[in-house]
Amino acid sequence: MTTLTITRPDDWHLHLRDGDMLTGILPETARDFGRAIIMPNLVPPVVRTTDAIAYRDRIMTALPDGSTFEPLMTLYLTEDTDPADVAAAHASGLIKAVKLYPAGATTNSASGVSDFDKVRPVLEKMAEIGLPLCFHGEVTDADIDIFDREAVFLDRVMDPIRRANPDLKVTLEHVTTKDGVDYVNAAENMGATITTHHLIITRNDILVGGIRPHYYCLPVAKRALHRDALVAAATSGNAKFFLGTDSAPHIDPLKESGCGCAGCFTATNTMSCLAHVFENEGKLENLERFASLNGPAHYGLASNADKITLRKSETPVEFPAKIETGAGPVTVFDPGFPLHWHVAE
Ligand code: NCD
Ligand code: ZN
User: Which string of b and e fits 152-170 if b means at least 16 CB within 10 Å?
Assistant: First the structure.
């Protein structure tokens, strides 16, 4: 097969940042994707309805002329979030989800949740009105090994919250372990996003033969058996698993540093990478489910009306090594193998 036409994909977990970075990287997503769930971890975070309205306006202003890309906004859950504000933002159609970061789990998560009892009223309200919760699934306890933080989270945090709120729809964001895949498979009312890079790299890619900061993200990539469980879940067509790239740009000086930031920037070549992974598994026919159909179904939205066509060429496709933004250069994810598929139209 050398041509594949699918419903236009969406990205159910995306960091667009703000200012010159937003302007520089937004075209990379708007080129191929119809919509994206926009993460609210700005500094300061997008906490209230008024913040989300203002951020949405800045995104719309930064869009290239003629683009029909639609940002799907989220609110950042804090211990002070007012359930009534969340409900009003949902009722107005402004937001499609609320994001919960355990405090300190990742980039710009200092205002996240430490005491889960404090957010119980918001979670109850969300369950009542059918608003999904996007959960960064890692504990932050200093004594838990970073490679175990997702698995421990499922037991200690996710399970009690889901038991207390069985009607709450939950997205386990950027699942990175077989434990997470197994948990989501067994759970009612739950789905998971899988990133582009977690379908490709393992922790060896970060650490063997020198430290490679552009592969460092959170949750950190795990050993191969976990990567392989993610590939099996994504390529299976199972409706619980869908694309959330977690494309998370940081300028190169902040990545290539003595204390480098977490985040892989995959917006530019995600569809090419995914086509490669799905073809390798003999599952190209399920790419549309993963990238275009399962996500909207989870969020109760229609899939996009238009299509894209991917083509496979003999010679590898060239992507820029970096996107030059007004904020500085951002290195594009290198899958470590040549890419032959590209979005042709
Ligand atoms: C994200 C970021 O940079 O905002 N970083 C990352 O490694 N994924 C935050 C996040 O989603 O954890
Ligand atoms: Zn993210």
Answer: bbbeebbeebbeebeebbb
Domain count for the chain: 1
CATH number at residue 274: 3.20.20.140
Segment (H or E) for 57: helix 49-62
User: Would you say residue 295 has pLDDT above 90?
Assistant: yes
The reply to whether ligand 1 has any atom less than 6 angstroms from the CB of 15 is: yes
pLDDT grade, residue 105 (50/70/90)? confident
The reply to whether 145 belongs to the active site is no
Q: What percent of the chain has pLDDT over 70?
A: 100
Residues spanned by the domain of 36: 3-343
Q: Is the CB of 335 under 6 A from ligand 1?
A: no
Residue 311 has pLDDT above 90, yes or no: yes
Residue among 138, 206, 246, 264 whose CB has most ligand 1 atoms within 8 A, to mutate: 246
- Mean pLDDT for the chain overall: 97
- Is ligand 1 within 6 A of the CB of residue 138? no
Of the residues 246, 252, 306, 334, which is catalytic?
246
Q: Which atom of ligand 1 is nearest to the CA of 106?
A: 12
Look at residue 89 and give its three-state secondary structure: helix
pLDDT score recorded for residue 106: 83
Q: Helix crossing, 270-280 with 224-235: angle to 10°?
A: 90
**Low-confidence winner among 71-80, 106-115, 144-153 (lowest mean pLDDT):** 106-115
Q: Is the CB of 304 under 6 A from ligand 1?
A: no
